[in-house]
Amino acid sequence: MANQRLRAPATQANTTRNARAELRRHARWEPARDAVWRLLDAELTSEARVAILGAGNGDSVPLQRIGSRVRHVALVDLDETALRTARRRQSRKVRRRIELIGHDVTNGAADRIATAVAAGQVPTPPHLLESPLPGAPYDLVIGDLLYSQLLYPALVDLNVPAKRRDAVISRYAPMLTRSTVGRLHVSTPYGRVLHIHDPIAWWPGHRQPISLKDILASAERDPRRAISLAAQGAGPRHSDPRAALHAFSIPIRATALWHWQFAPGVDYLACA
Q1: Is the whole model's pTM more than 0.90, yes or no?
Q2: CA-CA distance, 58 to 35, in Å (whole number)?
Q3: Helices (H) and strands (E) in the chain — how many of each?
Q4: Which domains are present in the chain?
Q5: Cα(139)–Cα(189) distance, rounded to whole angstroms?
Q6: 84-131, pLDDT tens digit by residue?
Q7: 3-state class of 91 per DSSP?
Q8: Nearest partner of 107 among 158, 197, 182, 161, judged by Cα
Q9: pLDDT of 199-225, one tens digit each?
Q10: Are residues 15 and 79 in contact, defined by beta-carbon separation less than 8 angstroms?
Q11: How many angstroms separate the CA atoms of 14 and 18, rounded?
Q12: Considering only CA atoms, which of 142, 130, 16 is closest in space to residue 74?
């Protein structure tokens, strides 16, 4: 395990977290899946081909409902064991429509950055190709809560000191996020991409200057104002796909925010 963590630290960090998923999580995350479905319901047709990047165990996306509506669903993640778990949970009809694609969206760049940092080196800026996802083109592509997980978990597991970790994230996370966003958008000729991100969270000992309740209340009137409120707190701002969209001059068609109860006492704001 230690050798694997040093060889492919970003990959190992994510597969380890998927393996730790507790059984009650799927039921607890149902409101979050409902929120995603409200965004997708009007977008999906019976002939659609959908890709979900960062699908993992499938707990955060309404996979059964998506698979019941569309012709084909590609679950894309670097953790193929988690993907098999996600497919196994669905009905037989939906399982036949699901394709599993083991794929690292950074093409090893996150692993190389984390490995260099662990060795006390300055990582070489990655050469990132914004190529389509395997199986493209798709009618709709979903980036499912993966942006903040591209690099950060690996640095935590490698015990990189907080100051050094923050410096690495601020330098390299925007590159990885922009590349990932670019890959999703070139994977659909219609530009229909749903990016789901976790900009801020609350848990015991992790205080924020704004409450989740206040952000969600603001979102009912003005989602952009709510996002500005969330930005007042501490969160993975260097992994925000919205910043990448602005950099690419890609217009944001709609914004939605909801409560994602990650665990008892651990609450996230989800933003799409």
Answers
A1: yes
A2: 15
A3: 13, 7
A4: 2-197+238-248 (3.40.50.150)
A5: 7
A6: 999 999 999 999 999 999 999 999 999 999 999 999 999 988 888 889
A7: coil
A8: 182
A9: 999 999 999 999 999 999 999 999 999
A10: yes
A11: 6
A12: 142
Instruction: Read off the tokens for 181.
Output: 């966003």
Q: Spell out a b/e string for 147-183, using b for 16 or more CB atoms within 10 Å of the CB, else e.
A: bbbbbbbbbebbebeeeebeebbeebbbbbbbbbbbb
Q: Please check whether residue 216 is in contact with residue 259, taking contact to mean a CB–CB distance below 8 angstroms.
A: yes
The helix-helix angle for 212-221 and 223-230 (nearest 10°) equals: 160
Residues 6+ apart with CB under 8 A from 28: 261, 263
Q: How many residues does the chain have?
A: 272
For 12, the token pair is 């190992």
269: which strand partners?
A: 200, 259
